[in-house]
Design goal:
The protein is about 50% helix and about 15% strand. The protein is an alpha+beta fold. The protein is globular, with a radius of gyration of 13 Å.
């Protein structure tokens, strides 16, 4: 898991930057490497998929993680409450984005 986290974040690194620059959420609630590592495993897994997808619904995230849609919906909503993601409704579907 740690190697995957490193590779995802490294792929998002900006040239010339000493730190990983990809963040989720506002400046007040940025999801950097330290924050990712401080999240519980289930939230970290969801956050890493969102780093890759940038915008998705719970079903799309569940396909990537192999967990149930309801589980991912809960994790995504927790990340929204923590300020790392935003959500919008499109018809019956709810999309989450960075």
């Amino acid at each position: 898991m740690n190697s995957r986290l490193e590779s995802v974040l490294r792929s998002q690194e900006r040239p010339g930057s000493q730190e990983y620059s990809r963040t989720l959420g506002s400046e007040d609630a940025a999801l950097d490497v330290a924050t990712l590592l401080s999240l519980s495993d289930h939230l970290r897994k969801t956050a890493m998929v969102m780093l890759e997808l940038e915008e998705a619904n719970a079903e799309m995230v569940a396909e990537r993680t192999g967990r149930r849609r309801a589980t991912e919906s809960d994790c995504l909503n927790q990340l929204v409450r923590m300020g790392y993601l935003q959500k919008r409704r499109e018809g019956l579907k709810v999309f989450f984005s960075i």
